[in-house]
Amino acid sequence: MPSCVLAYSGGLDTSVILGWLQDEGYDCHCVYVDVGQPCEDREAILKKAHDCGAKSARIVDVQEEMIRDFAFPVLQWQAKYEGIYLLGTSIARPIISKACLQVAREVGAEAFAHGATGKGNDQCRFQLAAEALDPTVKIIAPWRMKSFRDKFPGRTELIEFCDIKKIPVKASASKPYSSDENCLHISYEAGDLEEVDNCGVKVPDFGMGVSPQEAPDAVEEVSIGFEAGVPVSVNGKKLSALDVVQTLNTIAGRNGVGRIDIVENRFVGMKSRGVYEAPGITTLYAAHLQLEQLTLDRDLVNLRDRISPEVARDVYYGFWYTPKMDALLAFIKEAQKPVTGEIKLGLYKGNIEVHGRKAEHSLYDAEIASMEGGGSYDQTDAEGFLRLQGLPSRVQGTVRPRSY
Q1: Cβ(36)–Cβ(183) under 8 Å?
Q2: Which of 90, 91, 49 lies closest to 67 in space, CA to CA?
Q3: Does the active-site annotation cover 163?
Q4: Taking a C-beta distance cutoff of 8 angstroms, is the pair 67, 92 a contact?
Q5: Of 37, 56, 324, 353, which is most buried by a Cβ count within 10 Å?
Q6: With contact defined as beta carbons under 8 Å apart, do 184 and 315 qualify?
Q7: 14 is in an annotated binding site
Q8: Which candidate in 56, 97, 122, 308 is catalytic?
Q9: Is 19 annotated as a binding residue?
Q10: 302 marked as binding residue
Q11: Active-site residue, 261 included
């Protein structure tokens, strides 16, 4: 029999896909890739996969790797899709594909199956990553197949299939929206949020923190340490990459930090409304930017800022495993070498204030910048500087006088 690896969550969709793949003649190896999604009993998920006929089932925990090798380089780029979205879901998908392809190689499976729909971005991220890692892999995306959609036009048919196959699922009423969580963020979309006039901050089940209105009435200070642009400590305590993010999720979450509401342009062409909460990574972006202001020179920052939106687009679209991304990651690693120090922030009802800055390689010189007399800056030097800078304008003004 042909075999495939299924990116498996144990929920309704992937449970149905597991049964359907077996009906289609596949041996299925289920892989639950742990990126920090909430789950009460992971062992129960594995048992469910085995009980439903999976050839094998396993959990692969990639949280530390995802933060260290994927999220932090994107942070170093200060990359935000369309100026606001911090790419929490986009970052998770290529490492899920990588984990599934590693299992496929181990078990000799020739196909990779996933439950992403034909309307969303995740299908792009899964497939582009998988084919880059293994150009020979067969991608099975049931929701893009007419035969699958004809058999399962709606939720009712999915539940009926589970009843026939004796697949245990929680057949609860649909939520007024759809959510997806990992250790970086939670996204909320669909349902009531498809009406763009509905208020996004009224999502009833925000899971990573309180609203700004419910946050404490006092500022909470937090210090974040960096080495070469990589976050390494919180409040003076050295932590792993994952622990940095989780610690800040707790601290920033209880202060109402990190909620956004965006109408974004999906890779497939449509506009989509999403509400996100990402307290920890939002705080890291703010601290990292402050430290860069001390340690990076103007032209390097300007170059980074010009390229950053393109990095965000490539991550959002799913072009992670490409020569271009390899080169961009190598560039930012070199550029971030002086970004070492500590930033103290004040968190207050969704706001982030700067309370202090320290940097080992600070380019800030108080004597040069001082408004007081003296210092090492000679203001008369500016005369020649401005005469040279203004030369093209003076020539243009002579040849083509402007009205005023």
Answers
A1: yes
A2: 91
A3: no
A4: no
A5: 56
A6: no
A7: yes
A8: 122
A9: no
A10: no
A11: no
How many CB atoms are located within 10 Å of the residue 82 CB?
A: 13
Per-position b or e across 38-63, b if 16+ CB within 10 A of its CB: eeeeeeebbebbeebebbbbbbbebb
Residue ranges of alpha helices (H) inside 108-174 are: 122-133, 146-151, 155-165
Q: Is 174 annotated as a binding residue?
A: no
Identified catalytic residue from 56, 93, 97, 308:
93
Q: pLDDT of 207-244, one tens digit each?
A: 899 999 999 999 999 999 999 999 999 999 999 999 99
With respect to CATH, is domain 198-296+338-359 assigned 1.10.10.10? Answer: no
Q: Where exactly are the structural domains of the chain?
A: 3-165, 198-296+338-359
Q: Are 40 and 160 in contact (CB under 8 A)?
A: no
Residue 113, H or E segment: strand 111-113
Ligand-binding annotation for 41, yes or no, is no
Report residue 148: phi and psi, to 5°. -70, -45
Point out the catalytic residue in the list 13, 56, 180, 259: 13
Per-residue pLDDT at 168: 81
Determine the Cα–Cα distance for residues 354 and 267; give it in Å rounded to an integer. 35
Closest of 34, 40, 6 to residue 20, by C-alpha: 6
Catalytic: 357? no
Helix (H, G, I), strand (E, B) or coil at 351: strand
The reported pLDDT for the residue numbered 356 is 98
340 φ, ψ to 5°? Answer: -125, 135
Fold of 3-165: Rossmann fold (3.40.50)
Question: Does 198-296+338-359 match 3-165 at the fold level?
Answer: no
Per-residue pLDDT tens over the stretch 78-90: 999 999 999 999 9
Scanning the structure block, which residue is given the tokens 């299992």? 103
Return all residues near 137 (Cβ < 8 A) that are at least 6 apart. Answer: 101, 104, 110, 111, 112, 130, 131
At 172 the pLDDT is 56
Q: How far is CA 360 from the centre of its chain?
A: 29
Can 41 be counted among the known catalytic residues? no
Identify the band that residue 337 occupies on the pLDDT scale cut at 50, 70 and 90.
very high
What are 395's two structure tokens?
């020539």
* Ramachandran category for residue 349: left, alpha or beta (phi over 0 → left; psi -120 to 50 → alpha): left
Catalytic residue among 23, 51, 163, 178: 178
Q: What are phi and psi of 79, to 5 degrees?
A: -80, 125
Report in angstroms the alpha-carbon separations of 51 from 183, 243, 358, 393: 29, 34, 56, 78
